[in-house]
Design a protein that fits this description.
The protein is built from 8 helices and no strands. By secondary structure, it is mostly helical. The chain has one domain.
Length: 204
């Protein structure tokens, strides 16, 4: 077991940081954005080594959104006083859901075409599972933006994304990361109900 961890220390460390990141996310702790930097740094290497280029590129997006998320979550109240942003929802109108889902579709198509044809131009190995990689990356982009905006339904997106990713990583032999995504899926369910409870309290 120790030998396995040592030979896969980058993936193991990235997984531990990711669990800590998700724990802070569920609890609405603003320090999650700092852990996001560290987690993304490790997974840039992991996904490149496994030819999951869209997931690799997603880590750069996470770094940018981490800065935005920190700024938005802090917010500002009266007299320029910093306040924690409250949880919101997109379920008030069907248009919001349509915009979110259509954004995933457009991004997925775009990423799929990039993954399908760019590797040969750059003389690098072909992308593994370009359609699945494009879907999880596209949905993650939208879900992360929703998390940064502190929108409740980001957890519903993550439940689907994490479940799908788990299967893809098992096929790739990324067993540490696939195990991480089992935890991710379960914690996303917990996160949804915890945020929904907090959101209900703020309405009363």
């Amino acid at each position: 077991m120790l030998q396995f961890i040592l030979s896969n220390w980058i993936e193991f460390t990235g997984a531990l940081l990711a669990v800590a990141y998700l724990f802070l996310s569920i609890n609405g702790n603003i320090w999650l954005w700092f852990l996001g930097f560290a987690t993304s740094s490790f997974y840039l290497i992991i996904f490149f080594n496994n030819q999951l280029y869209a997931d690799m590129g997603l880590q750069f997006y996470y770094i940018i959104v981490s800065v935005y998320g920190w700024i938005h979550w802090m917010g500002k109240g009266k007299n320029n006083k910093k306040i924690q942003t409250s949880i919101s929802t997109i379920t008030l109108t069907k248009l919001n859901w349509l915009l979110a889902l259509s954004s995933v579709l457009v991004l997925q198509i775009t990423l799929y075409l990039i993954l399908k044809y760019t590797p040969s131009l750059l003389d690098i190995p072909e992308a593994s599972y370009p359609l699945g990689d494009a879907f999880t990356t596209a949905a993650s982009i939208v879900a992360t933006w929703m998390l940064a905006r502190k929108i409740l339904e980001n957890w519903l997106f993550w439940i689907v994304i994490n479940s799908f990713s788990m299967g893809m990583y098992v096929i790739k032999g990324m067993y540490i990361t696939s195990g991480l995504f089992v935890i991710y899926t379960l914690m996303a369910i917990v996160g949804y109900y915890r945020w929904r409870k907090e959101f209900s309290v703020t309405l009363n």
